[in-house]
Amino acid sequence: MTARLGSVSLVGAGPGDPELLTVRAVRRLEEAEVVLHDALVPNAVVEVATTAKRLCVGKRAGQPSCAQEEIVRLMIRLARQGRQVVRLKCGDPFVLGRGGEEAVALARAGIPCEVVPGVSAALAAPAAAGIPVTHRGLASAFVVVSGHAPEACGPVLASIEPATATLVVLMGLRSAGRIAALLMARGWQPDTPAAVVAAAWTAEQEVWAGTLEALGRSALPLGLPGTIIIGATAGFAQRRGSVAAQGQGGMTW
Q: How far apart are CA 199 and CA 205, in angstroms?
C-alpha cells in the first residue's frame, strides 16, 4: 500500500496582527499538523495553529539560523511522511521572503504546494502609521526593495529619479545610513520626508518621522523588524508608540 503523500502550504502571516490573517491562512493553520514559522512571526499568529507541532526555522541577522537548504529538506521530508505542513512566512510568501525558491523546490520534489498570500509589510507597515504609499499629487507609484544587502538594492535605487515614487525598504534598518547617502548623492533632497515603522501592527509598534538626512544620522531600533518609507507621503506619518522628539542630529526615538 502506497503511503499517503502530504502537502505544504506557503502561508503569509501578514504584518503581525492575527486579525490581519486571511480566512484561508487561519483555516490552514487550524488544519496543520506541523508549522514551520519564521522567527519574526509573533506568537499570537503562530498560536492560531492550536493542534500543530510548531517549529521555529527563522533566520535572524547575526544570530544562529536554520539554513534555507535545511528548511526545504524538512518540508519535503515531512510531506513525504504524509503530514499537512504550513510554512508560515512573514508578510507575503512571495515578497522578499524566498517563497518562490521554496515553491520551486517543492515542485521539483513532487510535493503538492499551495500559496496563501498575506498582507505584505511593504503596504501594512506604512498604513499602520497613516502613510499612503500612493497619493494623488504626491506619488503615483511606489518601489519596494530589500535593504538587507545595500549593494543589491543600490542599482534599483540609483535608477529612480528623485521624488518620483515612494520608496519602501524592508529589512533595511542597519543600512539606513548608506541608503540615505546613496539617495542624496543621486539628487534626493536632504529634507525629503522619511519615516520608520518598527514592529508594525503589534503592541510594540514605534514610529520615527523626520527627513532623509536625519534618517542617516539617527539611532534606529535594530532589535525590532522595521520598514523605512522615503518620499513625500512619509510626511503623513502619525507618531504612535515611543515616538521621537526633536533633538540634536534630527529626530530621535
A: 5
Q: Name the amino acid, one letter, at 21.
A: L
Instruction: Report, as residue numbers or ranges, the catalytic residues.
Output: 38, 59
Contact 9, 116 (CB under 8 A): yes
Delineate the domains of the chain, giving CATH numbers in brackets.
Answer: 7-116 (3.40.1010.10), 121-243 (3.30.950.10)
The model's pLDDT over 127-168, given as tens digits with 9 standing for 90+, comes to 999 999 999 999 999 999 998 877 778 899 989 999 999 999
Cell of 231: 518620499
Q: Rounded to two decimals, what is the model's pTM?
A: 0.87
Three-state DSSP at 99 gives: helix
> What are the cell numbers at 182?
546613496
Amino acid 27: pLDDT: 98
Write out pLDDT tens, residues 177-199. 999 999 999 999 999 999 999 99
Q: Facing residues of 245 across strands?
A: 252
